[in-house]
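Sharing a chain and its predicted structure for anyone who wants a worked example. Both blocks are below, sequence first, tokens second.
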Amino acid sequence: MSEIYYRKSDLMELEEYLEELQKKLIRSFDLFRNYELNDEKFDLFAKYHLRAEKYFLTKSAKIYGMESNEYILLKMMENLDNRGLEIITNNVIASIDKLVELHDEHMSSIITGVILIDKPLSEIDDDVLNKVSRFKYHKGFSFGFKGWVDIRLLLVSLKDGSNIANKKGKEVSEIFSFKN
């Protein structure tokens, strides 16, 4: 587990950001602060479960059921380098085993890994930014019969409100960006 220390001013910015993000997510997601997963502490964890069923005349005659899930793992990091990015992405990938419950009605799960930093994106190494934007993870279960999982990855700057995301992460990047 990596140790991360914050300055008091960073905590205030983090707290304000988390409050704004919670306002956006609260209607759809169950939210947890300071969530521990795989011996890593995340500043925010959110989960959303959608279930759809089709019946024939009565509920006892179910034709099918489908479940889709979404999870958000958000972590603040003071400095981000290649090694830190690797640790975070490996931890998000490893979380699949704990978060995704496989069964016949599981259709899809999406895990969104959000890394917050306290400096502008222009101060982050170009190699790290490229790795974030090129990150791709898709896994099918039982040839897709038990669904699949995709990972979104976003890097958000608390200093200027901008973000960079992988291809899947661009679908939700607007939710995580802000302007001071």
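Comments welcome. Confidence is low (pLDDT under 50) at residues 1-8.
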